[in-house]
Task: structure prediction
Amino acid sequence: MRRSRELLFQIDTRKLELLQTPINRLDLKIKGSVFEQAIPTVQDDLARVGIRRLEPVFYISTGYGCIAGSPIISFGFYDCDPLLKDLNEEFRGWRYSDPDIVNLLRHEVGHAFCYAYKLYRTPEFRQLFEVQGNFFNTYPETDKYDYNPWSRNYVNPSGDHYAQKHPDEDFAETFQVWLTPRSGWRRKYKARPIALRKLEYVDDIVKQLGRETPLVETKLSWMYERVEDIKMTVAQFMRAKPSRYYHHATGYVDTDLKSMFRSEPRIASRRALFRDYQRAELFLREQKLSLISRISYWVGVDTTVVYDLMDKCIHRARALDLWLEREQYDRKLVELTSYITALSVNYRESGLYILK
Result:
């Protein structure tokens, strides 16, 4: 990588930018992420065991889960990108490997199967998994739960005794163990009769219902905390302090861009918005070629020095959703030209865009 891009897209700079970016501006997709491989893996598992009619819906959210009563499964946005994974481990204390994510998905599909066929309403399920009262309303409000580490009545695939949190999790953990290829569950749990009975129940109920149409209708409106709707920054979500990266960030331009441009105006009419304002990203793209040729000539630097700087500004203006008033077009062009020129001079004189 050439030095100009190395400075502008250096890892501390990118981490600082990610932390300062609203989650809904990260442009995260299942395609291209680890989830793109995990979903077909688990779908193949379902086909292998004869579950043919269950079609879970997957989306990116603030964490892993299954919408109560519906086969809609969410993924944690923090696993979509390697740097987000690094930040999650740094500030929240854990990191899921690719195999962990596949197992999490098997677990969530267990919830989806339970909800799709309303197993929690059947006497056999309620007795075997010790359901007392309303299945959903008795679920703990926090992640804290009491458990007996010596109990032999539950599966414990992750070593955290999560099956003891609630009957809902007991079934999902049992389903995960049962669904995992080559788990050897009959042999592994043969000395644990109650846990084995739960696994055998899953085996039996899938044979009964695997080819049947689910009893519930999937309602996409039930999706909760879609990543597209989350306006808090990554730092706010992770309760992180971005300041640790400032000193080493060599390509951080967010502060300057926020000073030069503004956030999206609160105007009810979209027509009035685009009549009076313009996205800063489009403004920068319009000026890109002319500024590259002129500033590189005036300052005496290679065109790539200005090109990479403009590319960084466009990228961050888009991520931050910055705007400008059309009436200030000429003024902002002068500001932008001065800014790009100043940083290009810095690069020519010191080899750095931003002087500390």
Remarks:
- The chain has two domains: 3-10+243-350, 23-228.
- The longest helix spans residues 329-350.
- Residues 3-10+243-350 form one domain.
- The first strand starts at residue 57 and ends at 66.
